[in-house]
Structure formats: structure tokens, C-alpha cells
Amino acid sequence: MVKRKRKKRKKGFARFALKVLLGISLLLFVFILSVRIGLWGKIPSKNELSTFHYNRASEVYTADSVLIGKYYLNDQQPIPFKNIPEHVRNALTAIEDERFYEHSGIDYQSLLRVAIKTILMQDRSSGGGSTLTQQLAKNLYPRKDRNQTHLVVDKVKEMIIAQRLESLFTKDEILTHYLNTVSFGGNTFGIESAALKFFNTTTSELTIEEGATLIGTLKATHSYNPRLFPQKSMERRNLVLQSMVNNGFLDAKEKDSLSAIPLKLNYREFEHDEGLAPYFREEVRKKLREWCTIQNKNGKNYNLYTSGLKVYTTLDSKMQQLAEETMAHHMTSLQEKFEKSYGKNAPWLRNKGLISKLVKRTEPYQKLKKLGWDDTRIMDSLRKKRTMTLGDWSGEKTVKASTMDSVQHYMKFLNTGSLSMDPRTGAVKTWIGGINYKHFKYDHIAQSKRQVGSTFKPIVYTTALESGIPPCTYFPAQEVAYENLKGWSPSNSNNKDEAYLNYSMEMALSHSVNTVAVKVLEKTGIDKVIEQAQKMGVYSELPKQPSLALGTGELYVSELATIYTSFVNNGKGAEPFYIESIRDQNDSILVRFTPKKAKTSAFSKKTGEMMLEMMKSTIDQGTASRIRTTYKLKNDIAGKTGTTQNNKDAWFVAITPKLVHVSWVGLDNHEIGFKNTSLGQGANAALPLFALWYQKLNRDAAFNGITKARFPKTDPSVLRILDCEPIKRDGFFKRLFKNPNKKKVKKFRTKS
After folding, report:
1. Cβ–Cβ under 8 Å, residues 429 and 316
2. What residue stretches are annotated with the Penicillin-binding protein transpeptidase domain (predicted)?
3. What separation in angstroms does the CA of 732 have from each of 165, 661, 737?
4. Consecutive H or E run containing 592
5. Partners of 642 in beta bridges
6. What is the pLDDT of residues 258-275, one digit of tens each?
7. How far is CA 100 from CA 157, 172, 303, 562, in A?
8. Residue 633 and residue 626: Cα distance in Å, rounded?
């Protein structure tokens, strides 16, 4: 009887258990079915999965095929299966999915193991049991919610998507898609972008230990980041290598030798603020965005950040690198001298009115002003200190500072802009828009117009020669007060007694004599000079004032560069040209750009030769003679220095047979200039940016084609025309009737 009851109870329990099991199975079936039909959110169809496309970053290359930047939403550069080395594929499957080539998208054996360990043994380190195919599903359709209910739903969705992927793609295709979409931390997606970022190489060139390092990070991209945690990353790498041994992909001896290799990164950030030529890359980005907009209006479908465009530029990576090194070296030294020259009375320390004025231009001030705050309340708020990062030439420091402190810190910095280009085509070789793109976004090449000082004088002298004024015409150096210009009296920067001296045009230009430049302008005519400037490439409006001779007109660096290319390009100015072609992801050319240069010469060959000889004198014995004396450059060079009123802007333009280089140095705040001319003149502040850079080019034989180039021989007849005494002293009777201590007064003749 008891046995019968026990038997009956067992049967009852078995029936109950069976019912529970069937009930759970039914519920599970209904749940999975509900997920499959989309009650928990849409699941992509096979058709959608078969037609998915990658978001590809667009790339920027230099003329020497160096990748210098990317434009992206996600830093992702998909590659084909053939570019993925076997050892990378083996490392991935060994550590992430041993039965990848055996299962059909879901590894039930692994799932059962995880379930037993997690549920019965409470082992949270057992993993998730996801296959590479399931992980690919998660890569393509990232989880949006982290709560437990949605986690189960997401897992089921990924299983369903995995099965569909397996029916659409081969195992090799799935593995390729996975490696092209998986995150390596930050905003870096795909093995190719990771290889470039951490090892500055392509996936196909990864060594076994490098590949194992990258695959090892996939378990936890932050914790095993080789740059942040090198020791943990190396331990994980060695675990990957051991997994490769366990799966027959490596022998133990090879693994031991590879495990002994220290972790060696060649890290490169493809961030907008970092890397080579950031100002240049930003200008290229703007032009590329404009091109995409035009193309899309014409029915195309190009996206700067996702279409994988390849932009090939004219920039020379090595020349740019050397230019940036030169800039950092020179500007660090100049900044130190600049601050020392002002001492404790510097305007960024004492000029409260100027500081307040600059604070009111800041974004924090403007935001609070829009909220209706009064000035007192705003200023009190902006004086409150908080943790912030401030940068200088020694690096970045995290400090306690206020917005007011930040303004005072950055307002003192000298800035710069320099551009070099091939005068024959206008092809840009180097582009430096400022001292630090992260802290100073303003590009002094593309955005800034400044007074150009004496670098404008060659236009005046070119016009004079074209007008028939002989180069050996002598002009008195004596200072003149022009009564019809409110007594305006331009003077020369030296302390030389010039009351009885008269200069030839070559002497006056090479030594940048202001008084003579104004007299040459007067004799030639302002309108003629402006017309000549426009022929040579000036498109900015110029002041119709006698001060034009001294460079009070404001021009872009690019305009100045175009002007000077005409002197070594048969009188035809070449505009800066920096995008050679735009190509698609397969390297097929979508558009090729051609240089823009003037169709007709702005002046005669004879005038061009005379001007070039005059500007050679500037280098050999004039205001830029330190090119020869201090920097010992023996190359063929012509050029012109420039310094503006109150030492606000320092300029230097160098002309060589194969390069024109323009450099500017000054402050973004026009209210502050150099303390003195000796520090702020073009020969001291701007010239070294060229001279130090050219020294580096001279030391590299790769640039011999540029540095050893020679100017064409000047026509002997031109040399004869220029062959005159540079200075003539007034005769006895003229000196007798001239009072050297009395300034001459006259009217400036406005009609030539």
C-alpha cells in the first residue's frame, strides 16, 4: 500500500514536472516567436542584412602618399578578407570562438556550459557564450538598453540575426565583417583602424604578436588598452598566444619566443586636433564638404564622414613635419623673449580694460549675458576658479583657474601663419595656420587678413619699372611732411643720418627705406600701383592712400604668396592649390583638380628679372642679410622682410627657384604688439621660420631638387641697367642750401 502510494506520488510529480517543463518550453517558444515576429522590436530581414554597408571614414593623403588624417563619425576602414593575415584570424577564433567553423551561428555546447556554470555554480566569469556571428549581430545592431529584460530579448535577437547571417554569408565573410565592425575602444572600429592607431601599420603588415595584442583587447577594450595598461595588455596578448597553441595554430617554442617580445607601440591618433597639419586638414575638410554638397545637388550621394572618400593633396609630409618642428622651436624661444621684454608691466597683467574687453568676447560671458545677467554678476562668476587645463610651450597642465585667468593666460601668446608652395603651379607644400590647433582654432592662412608692411613694396617698385622709371633713378631719403595729408611724415626705422643721401631703387628696396617707397609711389601713381597689384593676384580691397606704399593694406597670406610666385613664374601669379584629386573607396578618381594661375603676365620679363635681382640684394646685403650671416644659407634666395606700424606684424617672404615661402608672426589681439622693433621686425620674428626650416631641407638629400635649384641666368642687359652706385650724396651746393635739421614740407602729388 505504501509502495503504491509512493509510486503514485512519483508519477504525479513526474507529470507535474513534465507539465512545468512543457509550460516553460511553450512560454519560451512563444517568447522566441514574439521576438522573431517583431513584438519586441524589429529584426532585420535577410534582405536588409545582405545589403548592409559600412560607414567608411574619408582619408587625407599627402603628395607622398602618407595618411595624415581622417574625417569620420566612427573611425572605420573596412578591408577585404585577403588583407587579414591568417595569424590574425587564428588568434581571433582561438580566443573568442574555438568552434567558429563548426557551428551554425549559435554554439549550443558553449551556451550549455555557460548556463551550468552561471546558474548552478554561480560562476560569473564563465563568459556569455556568444559566437563571433552573434557578436557581429551586436556590432551591426548595438544594444540600446541595459536592463535585464532587454538583455534577454537582445540575446535572442542576436541569435536569430546570427542564424540569418550564417545563411547569407560564408564563414570567411562573417569573420571579415566582424573584424571590420568590432570596437577597439574610443571611436576606433575595425582591425584596420586599430592597426593604424596602435602600430601605425596596416592589418596585412601586423606581426603575430601585434595581431595577438589587438585581438586580446576585444575582451575589454579599456582594461586591455595597450597604451593605457601595457602590462595587462601584454599578459592578455600572451594568453591569446597560448590559446593559439591549444588550438594547433602555434607550437609552444614559437609561443615562448613571441611572449618574450616586449610590447612596442607606434601610436597615432587620428583626432581632429592632433597629428600633422591640423589647420591644413581643416581647410581640406571645408573644401571637401563643399564638393560633397554640390555633388549631392546633382544627384550623387557622397557623405564626407561615411563614404570612404580619399583626398590626395599636394602637401609634402616630410617638409610639413620639418616646418612644424621649426615653428615650435622658434616660437618657443621668441615667446620667452617677448614676455621678458614686457616684464611685470605686461598688458596681460596690468591692462584691466583690455582684459575685460577680451573676457566679454568669450563664449561663457556671452551665454550669461543672454540669460540677462548684469556685468558685475557675470564678472564675479567668471572669476570663480575651477579645474581646467591650460597649455603653453612646455605642455599642458591641469590647474585651478577661472575664465578670467584663462583669458589672461592665452592673450599673451604670439601666433603665426606660414605657407610654402611651388611657384610654377601653386601646389602647397607646407601649411601652418597657427601655433596650436587645439587651443587656437583660428587659421592665419585661410581666415586672417593683416597689414603686410614692407612686403608690399615690391609691388610698388614693379609698377614703377613697368611705368618706365629707370631702376637707377635716385630718390632722396630725407623725411618729408606732407601738408595735404595732415602733416603725415613717414620715417625710416634706422637712426642713420640720411638728410643728404639719395638711394637707387635697388638700394631703397633691399634696405626697405620707407621715405623712398612713398616717393616712388608718388611718382608712379596710387591707381597704377593698385591696378598692378590686382594683376599680380591681389583681390582684397586696397586703401587709396599714400600709406599703401608702406603696406597698410590688409591681405591674406595666400594673396601675398600668389604675388611673389609671379617673380619666378614669368609674371604669372599662381594661386595656392592643395587638393590634387578626390577618389572613392576603391581609389577610382572622382575628380581631378588643376592649378589656377594667371593666363597673362602681370609684367614684362625684363621687369621680373630686375625685381628678382633687387630682392636678391635684400638677402645678400639688405634687411634679410642674416639669411647669409647668421644662418649661413648659400642657396639661391631672394626675398623681402616686412614690419607693420607699432610692431604689430612681422613678415618674411622668401623666393627660391622651386619654392615661395611666406611667414607671419604677431598676436591675435591687435591691441598688443612687440615691445620693440629689434624683437618684432620681420628679420627677427618671421625670417627664422624660413631660415631654420631651409637649413633642415639642406641637410636632407631628398630635397636636393629644391635646395640645389638655381635661378635662371639674368640677361646681361638687365645687369647693366642695374649697375649703378647704390647711394649718391647731395652735391656741395645742394648741401649748402639744405638744412638737415629741418623737415621738408610739401604736398603729396596724387596724380602721376
Report:
1. yes
2. 421-658
3. 101, 45, 9
4. strand 589-592
5. 651
6. 999 999 999 988 778 889
7. 19, 10, 35, 61
8. 9
